[in-house]
Structures are given as structure tokens and as C-alpha cells.
Specification:
This protein has 495 residues and is α/β, with parallel strands linked by helices. It contains 23 helices and nine strands. A hairpin with a 7-residue loop joins strand 6 and strand 7.
Length: 495
């Protein structure tokens, strides 16, 4: 409790220091009337631009935030950006922090958010909406020294009515896009659904319709899923249809998952099937795994199949793992197998590591085994170094040995020195030997330089001796340069 009070006070103090100096509070009245008053005041005072803002409460997850600028970052609870906080403008700023401290970060709570609309006049014309930002009210907003007219805290329904009014009255397409997106933000599912349906069914530009489809991701109802499905069937714009698939991914309902599976299995557009495969990773159920695995094996488009495989990496259970293993060991397309190996590396868990190690001993294409080596290198070195060393020394495929040497060279561990020496001197493949020479020069403190110099001096293969000299010349390590100079002097003395 003490920590909570201290944090609240800190936020309030910081907010007071950043409060806009050129602030006006709108008079009493409806929100639309307050905006008209703000426009009139700005026109009368010959201001070319101003912000108009209000706040309301909406349902959000306890750990969720809305960042109000693309420049903002939120890390470990700290905001990095510039701007002015609106927190002191609330009647009771402390209420903003009531729900910040709880053991359940996924609980749905009411949070205070703000909408700021930027109006600008050009050549003395009436002020028109040019931009809009939304975010949690405690975060600093990028007002850029323009005056702010503050309308106070309102009900969400009043803010939604203002968005509809602006949409009907604004001629600029950018402004219509802004208000369409913001309308759904007001967390009024029934009203937002009707509004989005109006936008999607009327003669509106594809960009504005796309915003309506995106806005439906905030309307978590079966009716919004149905509207998105109709949009997929009827809208003439590929961009709008793709946005509809993305919105289905953001709706956490079984009906939305079923709609995505239908797109993945039956839609004739590869781009939409690929998007559906990506979005299904957000619906982590058994039927999503089955649909993705089926797509990986049966979709005629390789890019769709690879996207389905990549999504399987996001299922941390055995079903996702078994599906990836089946693809890696059985798929007829090498590129899809490679995607499976890469996806197993993204899991970074022990079962995935064991599958990748098993793949290096199996009868599968070398390209997939190379990808398995690269994936293993993403795991902690203590778990994979022995496997990489064994692969570099004895794998049947030269391309796989080279990949193992490349990954060992990036780890630059002294433990690999004996392996690199043996491979550089004895491997039957010249390109593998070259890779070992390069890796030797990456070992810390130049401890592999002597081996490369020895090869340059005495190896029976003239081709490899020349390669060792070139590697010494390409190295930036001081010991390599010095060794090259000494070697050149020795060669000069020979008749």
C-alpha cells in the first residue's frame, strides 16, 4: 500500500511539471458544443492550430496500455517519450491508479483513457481535423506547444457520438480514417458494430473501409465476426479483406478461430490464407494446430505452408512440437522442412532441441539439416556445443559440416580449438577446411592464429596453404597481421 501511494504521488508530481501552459477548459455543455466553442475561440484569436481533448473510462486488461504516440516506448513500467501529461486535468487523478496493483494482470478493469484531436486551419479557412492521438491518460501526450482545449471527463457514449458527427461532417479522407478507428476505441460494442457496418457497406474509400475492418478487432462479439466474414466475401479491396483476417485474429472467440480456419482451408487467395495462418497462432487450441498442420502439408502455395509451420512454433505444448517434427521429417518440400527446423529453434525448449539433434542423424535433406544446425546455435552453448562439434567433425554432408563450423566460429569458444585444428588439417572437403580456418581466427586472444600459420607454412596442400595466407590477410586481429608479416619474410628468404 505504501508503495502504491508513493507511485501515485510521483506520477502526480511529474504530471504537474509537464502541464500545458496554454490551456483552456471548455464551458459546460455537450461534447459537440464544446468542440464548436473551441473552434470559434481559435478562429477569433487567429490561432492556426489547437488540440481538443477529453477523457473517459473503458474496459481493459489490467496489464494493458494504449500508447499515444509512435515515439513512445513502455519498458518495465517506465515511459520513454516527450510531451505533457493530462493527469492533473482530471477531477480525481488518483483514481487512475486504483487498478494498477494486483496479482492478476489479465483481469479486466476500468481505466481512464484520453482522446486528443488536432485541428488546423490553412489559409484562414475553418479548422479541420488533421490528426488524433489516444492513450492512457497518465502518459505524456505530444502536444508540441499547441494550445489545448480540455473538455473534461465524459461518458464513452458522448465521445462515440462526437466521432460519428465528425465522420459525417469531415470531407478529408484522413480525418474520416481517424474517426472511424477511434469510434471502436470507445468500447461500445453495439454502437461500434452498427457504425462499422455502415462504413463497410457504403461507398467509402478502401482506406477508410480498411480502418473500419481494423476497428472491429475491438468489438469482441459474434456479430463482429459475422460482419468480418461478409467483408471477406464481398469487399472489392484486397487490403480490406486482409485487414478483416487480421481483425479475426485479434478477436478471442471460438467463432473467430473457426472463421480463420475456414479462410485457411477454403479461401482462394494465397495472401489471405497466409494471413489466416499467421493469425491462428493467437488462438492456441488443438483445432488450430490441426488446421495449421493440414495447411503445411496440403496447401499448394509454399509460402502459405511455410507460414503455417512458423505459426506452429507459437504452440508451446506437445501438439505443436509433434506437428513441427512431422513436417521436418516427412514433408516433401525442402523449404517447408527448413521452416520447421527454424521454427523449432524459436521454441528454445529442451524437447525442440532434442528433435533438432535427432534430425542431424536422420535421412533428411542437407538443407534442412543445415537449418537445424543454425537453429541449435540459438540454444545455450552448454546444451548444444557437443552436438555442433560432432557435426563439424563427422557429419556425412560437407554443407552441414560447414554450417556447424560457421556456428562454432560465432561462439568463439576455446573448447572448439582442437576440433577446428583437426578439421582444417584433415577434412576431405576444401570448403570445409576454409570454414575451419576462418573460425580459428575468431577464437579469443588470437589462440587459433598459430594453427593457421602452421597450415600456411607446412600443409601438403598448396591450395590450402594459399587459403590460410588469404585468411590471415583478411583477419583484423593484430596477431594475424604480425604472423603474416613474419611469414612473408620467411618466404622472401627461400630461393
Amino acid at each position: 500500500m505504501k508503495r502504491r501511494v508513493i507511485l501515485c504521488l510521483t506520477f502526480l508530481l511529474l504530471s504537474l511539471t509537464g502541464l500545458a501552459q496554454n490551456l483552456e477548459r471548455a464551458p459546460q455543455g455537450a461534447l459537440e458544443q464544446k468542440l464548436e466553442w473551441a473552434r470559434g475561440q481559435s478562429q477569433a484569436s487567429s490561432q492556426d492550430a489547437f488540440w481538443f481533448g477529453y477523457a473517459f473510462r473503458r474496459n481493459m486488461r489490467r496489464d494493458a496500455h494504449v500508447l499515444n504516440s509512435y515515439r513512445m516506448t513502455l519498458r518495465d513500467g517506465l515511459v520513454s517519450t516527450y510531451g505533457r501529461s493530462l493527469l492533473p486535468l482530471l477531477d480525481d487523478p488518483a483514481t487512475v491508479f486504483e487498478d494498477h496493483f494486483s496479482p492478476d494482470p489479465e483481469e479486466m478493469v476500468q481505466k481512464t483513457v484520453a482522446v486528443l484531436l488536432y485541428f488546423k486551419s490553412e489559409d484562414g479557412a475553418a479548422h479541420q481535423l488533421r490528426n488524433m492521438v489516444r492513450g492512457n491518460v497518465e502518459f505524456p501526450f505530444p502536444l508540441e506547444d499547441h494550445p489545448l482545449v480540455w473538455a473534461g471527463q465524459v461518458e464513452a457514449a458522448e465521445g462515440f457520438r462526437l466521432m460519428r458527427s465528425l465522420y459525417q461532417g469531415e470531407e478529408a479522407e484522413k480525418a474520416r480514417k481517424e474517426v472511424v478507428e477511434a469510434a471502436a476505441f470507445h468500447d461500445l460494442p453495439r454502437q461500434a458494430l452498427a457504425f462499422m457496418q455502415q462504413v463497410l457497406s457504403h461507398e467509402e474509400s478502401a482506406d477508410v473501409r480498411r480502418e473500419a475492418a481494423e476497428g472491429l478487432r475491438m468489438v469482441q462479439t459474434p456479430e463482429s465476426v459475422g460482419l468480418l466474414q461478409r467483408t471477406l466475401q464481398n469487399d472489392a479491396s484486397a487490403a480490406v479483406r486482409k485487414e478483416a483476417v487480421e481483425a479475426l485474429g485479434a478477436i478471442s472467440l471460438a467463432r473467430a478461430e473457426a472463421a480463420l480456419i475456414e479462410v485457411l482451408r477454403e479461401n482462394g487467395e494465397p495472401d489471405l490464407r497466409r494471413e489466416a495462418a499467421e493469425q491462428l497462432r493467437r488462438h492456441k487450441t488443438e483445432r488450430s494446430v490441426q488446421a495449421l498442420q493440414q495447411s503445411a502439408f496440403e496447401d499448394s502455395n509454399s509460402r502459405v505452408a511455410r507460414e503455417a509451420v512458423e505459426s506452429l512454433a507459437y504452440f508451446a505444448d506437445d501438439q505443436g512440437l509433434n506437428a513441427l517434427r512431422r513436417v521436418l521429417f516427412q514433408h516433401p518440400d525442402e523449404k517447408v522442412r527448413c521452416e520447421a527446423a527454424e521454427s523449432l529453434g524459436k521454441r528454445k525448449d529442451a524437447p525442440a532441441r532434442r528433435v533438432l539433434q535427432e534430425a542431424l542423424q536422420a535421412d533428411i535433406p542437407a538443407s534442412a539439416q543445415k537449418e537445424a544446425v543454425e537453429a541449435l546455435a540459438r540454444f545455450p552453448a552448454q546444451d548444444t556445443l557437443s552436438t555442433l562439434i560432432a557435426t563439424a567433425e563427422s557429419h556425412a554432408q560437407p554443407a552441414v559440416r560447414r554450417e556447424a563450423l560457421e556456428q562454432l566460429g560465432r561462439q568463439a569458444s576455446e573448447r572448439i580449438l582442437p576440433t577446428l585444428q583437426r578439421v582444417a588439417e584433415n577434412d576431405a572437403d576444401y570448403r570445409v577446411q576454409r570454414e575451419a580456418l576462418e573460425a580459428l581466427l575468431n577464437i579469443p586472444q588470437g589462440r587459433g592464429v598459430d594453427t593457421v600459420v602452421s597450415i600456411a607454412r607446412t600443409h601438403p596442400s598448396l591450395r590450402l596453404r594459399k587459403a590460410a595466407i588469404r585468411e590471415l590477410g583478411d583477419s583484423s586481429h593484430p596477431q594475424a597481421k604480425q604472423a603474416l608479416i613474419e611469414l612473408a619474410k620467411e618466404l622472401e628468404k627461400k630461393p
